[in-house]
Amino acid sequence: MTKVKKFGMYLFLCIVSFISVFPLYWMVSAATNKSAEVISGRLVPGTYFIQNLKNLMANQNIGRALGNSFKYSIILTVVSLVICSLAGYGFEIYHDKAKDVVMSIILLAMMVPFVATMIPLFQMVSKAGWLNTTIGFILPTISTPFLIMMFRQSARSFPHDIMEAARIDGLSELRIFFQMFMPTMKSTYAAAMTITFMNAWNSYLWPKVIMTDATSQTMPMVVANLTEGYVTDYGMLMLAVLICTLPTAIVFFCLQNAFAEGITGAVK
Amino acid sequence: MSKPSKKLTLSKKHNLTGWAFLAPGAILILIMSFIPMIRALLLSFQSGVGAQMKPCGIMNYTRMFKDTVFIQSIKNTFFYLIIQVPVMLIFALILASILNNKDLKFKGLFRTMIFLPCATSLVAYAIIFRSLFANNGLVNLVLVNLGILDQPYSFLTNTTSARIVIIIALLWRWTGYNMVFYLSGLQNIEYSVYEAAKIDGASAVQSFFRITIPLLKPTILLTAIMSTNGTLQLFDESVNLTSGGPANTSITMSHYIYDMSFKYVPNFGYSAAMSFLILILVAILAFLQMKVGDKRD
């Protein structure tokens, strides 16, 4: 490769990386500055962080919203991973014609947009008295075709002879799943966990529909509430945005490599 | 003698165990996806408020085509779809093939930085972009200081610019995500194929079109379907970035359906009819994409 070309390539990557990172940097620096300073274009981190935090706490119940978001997202992730990996494993390890047909029907559900099922789901959840509850939040997305597909794909690489050996040793099917499949599929679980947790944390439309009570609102809902009104306190707003982003960012960073690996498996 | 029959029961048991494993997941999808879909279809032929729903024939469907806001929301959604999805996918492909280069330094760092926007919550990034493009936001400040603009331009209250800001935000958030899919797909292609092409005198552009794109086709199809599906359901950005404004000219279909069902006097029948139209659109587009994807074989 010529030197000019190489330079052009690095320059291009640097520009793209800058554009990718800059809004996030701006968010962090704005969270530590006064609103007036943010408007005047100050880009260096300031010393107003504590005051922004105080303003934010006085304006919205951030602790409660964070607690709710963590509760809903963690419960959804755990339940969803167990149910979907069981299903993906079932489809692959015990597969026959009938199960393959069921699997292709399930994949069709991937095409169903959420708005198309939202109103009947809302009616169902409200009839059951599950508005403003964790179960109402998690029910529609516990089992997703995408995760089932991912686990089915990874179960393909689970060695059959080991299973046979375990069966001869008298291990029950369920124990083979929990004691042998789960530990060997760590990277798939990590990828599935990243995707599920991030989707759960980010979900906005469904909680907006069913969390009618202020006490059960999630973090993204509370952040969105802050933009209502005429004057925006940018320092406070960006601090809220930062707090809302941190959990997903942390999960993402810890599991980034596993995520890429898991996707590689799904794409194969 | 009893051996064959015992084997049968064993395989039957095996078969049943399989069903038991997949039952919870499959039943949940049936109850949470397929049954609501059918109920939405039934609901779309009814009108009324709350529990007092009456059959109304195809009235909801005829109303839809006279509803200027709904037609606007379809146009907007397709505007986002037609511009954003191809631009994003091409851009992601280019970035992925650059990052796949073996000689590149700081590969991991570039990948992480470009993928970073995916770590933000949807509401969060919508609000970041809303603030950056506000009248007193940073973009205006920079443009005015550089002398490109005389006075701040109201990006979010002008129709065209509001739509473009949504597209820019979407590109920012999702390009890296799609890039990771392509990078994973590229790992399945032997790097020696590229080296052989180079020895045979193929330029980088040629190997991009002749090797990368054909071999990545299944991944491209997957990302195209996922992005189309996602764009047709846009909600968070429309609500939090532009509030659908000015005067509903940047509103998306999902946003309008939400407003119709939960913000104004609830009209579930009409909303169900509109949501069913989205379902049909998603199905048609996915079908078309799969057809196009098959043809190039």
Mean pLDDT of chain B: 87
* Fold-level CATH name of chain A: MetI-like fold
Q: H/E element string of chain A?
A: HHHHHHHHHHHHHH
Q: List segments of chain A where confidence is low: pLDDT < 50 over at least 5 consecutive residues.
A: none
Based on CA inertia axes, which overall geometry of chain B fits? flat
Q: How far is it from the N-terminal to the C-terminal residue of chain B, by CA? A: 53 Å
Q: CATH homologous superfamily of chain A?
A: MetI-like
Q: What is the name of the CATH architecture of chain A?
A: Orthogonal Bundle
Structural class of chain A: mainly alpha
- Count of distinct strands of chain B: 2
- Name of the top-level CATH class of the largest domain in chain B: Mainly Alpha
Can you summarize the main beta sheet of chain A?
none
- The name of the CATH topology of the largest domain in chain B is MetI-like fold
Low-confidence stretches of chain B: 1-5
Spatial order of the strands forming the largest sheet of chain B: 1-2
Question: How many discrete structural domains of chain B?
Answer: 2
CATH class of chain A: Mainly Alpha
Radius of gyration of chain B (Å): 25 Å
Describe the structure.
- The complex is a heterodimer of chains A (268) and B (297).
- In chain A, helix 8 crosses helix 14.
- Chain A is mainly α.
- Chain A has a single domain (53-267), classed as MetI-like fold, CATH 1.10.3720.10.
- Chain A has helices at residues 3-31, 35-39, 49-59, 62-93, 97-108, 114-127, 134-138, 145-155, 160-168, 173-184, 186-202, 205-210, 219-226, 234-267.
- Chain B is an all-alpha fold.
- Chain B has two domains: 3-59, no CATH class; 67-295, MetI-like fold.
- Helices cover 74% and strands 3% of the residues of chain B.
- Chain B contains 13 helices and two strands; from the N terminus they run H-E-E-H-H-H-H-H-H-H-H-H-H-H-H.
- Chain B has helices spanning 3-43, 59-64, 68-99, 107-115, 122-132, 138-145, 159-187, 191-199, 204-215, 217-232, 236-242, 253-263, 268-295; strands at 46-49, 52-55.
- In chain B, strands 1-2 form a two-stranded antiparallel ribbon.
- Chain B is flat.
- The termini of chain B are far apart.
- At the A-B interface, helix 1, helix 4, helix 5, helix 6 and helix 11 of A face helix 1, helix 3, helix 4, helix 5 and helix 6 of B.
